[in-house]
Amino acid sequence: MPVTFDFHDRVALVTGVGRVGQIGHAVALALGRAGARLVLCDVRAVDVAARAQEFTAEGIQVRPAAGDLTQPDVARLAVETAMRHFGRLDVVVNVAGCLTTFGPLAGTDVLAFDREIAINLKTAFLVSQAAAPELARTHGVIVNFASVAFFRPQNQMAVYAAAKAAVAGFTQSLALELRDQGVRVNAIAPGMVRTTDNVAAVGDAPVRWVEMRQITDGVLFLASDAADAVTGHVLPVTNGDL
Asked: Does residue 169 carry a pLDDT above 60?
């Protein structure tokens, strides 16, 4: 029997929600179906608008907040959207991020390095920084997205592994900083998730897939009162592929 969570009294801000079949979309939809009111964030306004329309059709209360979350003003605007329309903020899920740099160190230029760090770490930093004062008022929760690459780095993925290890370290340090304000900070570290992009990239190769429901269940658990004593934890969701 599946575990159920109740977020009817919560407002959640989720980043990286723009594309159907990817993790951010699934996380936001799971929170919305559990009762949360949502601020949906992604870089492309047309994608955020489409997701807002989709969620609204399911009866989920949403507000879009499109823009480049590597920019401080955009991160602040996303948090302000929650406060202006819903009056509070309880949960932040920093999903935004991806693997953009694969290959040997010698062939990796500094712009590619900067892009990988910005997408995976800077977005989480800026959104968390903007949200922390509001989360302190509600004793809220931040859930970041690291990767199994934090536990098991792979060949020719040095920059991505560094970015996700930084997210894990950021999570653990911020948990200590915010614990006396009643804010919990944790991270999910997924293995190979059965997303649209990953399935297309892997093809027929054998993979120990992590299903989307397993990721969303992990996020809902960490964001819920069931995990009220859990902070500073990086949770592997890998189906044992460590």
From this structure: yes
- Please choose, from the candidates 56, 53, 48, the residue with its C-alpha nearest in 3D space to the C-alpha of residue 78: 48
Structure tokens at 117: 């760090």
* Cα–Cα distance for residue pair 33/167, rounded to 1 Å: 27
- Distance (Å, whole) CA 199 – CA 13: 27
**Left if phi > 0, otherwise alpha if psi is -120 to 50, otherwise beta: which for 39?**
beta
Give yes or no for a contact between 37 and 86, defined as CB atoms under 8 angstroms apart: yes
**Helix residue ranges per DSSP H, 34-148:** 45-57, 72-86, 110-117, 123-138
Contact status, residue 97 vs residue 145, Cβ threshold 8 Å? yes
d(CA 146, CA 85): 30
Round to whole Å and give the CA distance between 198 and 12: 26
Q: Is 160 annotated as catalytic?
A: yes
Choosing from 55, 125, 145, 160, the catalytic residue is 160
CA distances from 171 to 38, 60, 64, 174 (A): 22, 29, 26, 5
Q: Which residues, listed in sequence order, are joined to residue 62 by a DSSP beta bridge?
A: 38
pLDDT over 90, % of the chain? 78
CA-based angle 118:123:127, to the nearest 5? 155
* Residue (of 196, 190, 189, 184) closest to 223 by Cα position: 184
pTM of the model: 0.95
Q: Confidence class of residue 2 from pLDDT cuts 50, 70 and 90?
A: low
Q: In the numeric block, which tokens belong to residue 212?
A: 């989307």
- Residue 177 neighbours by CB under 8 Å, 6+ apart: none
Specify the DSSP element, H or E, that contains 26.
helix 23-33
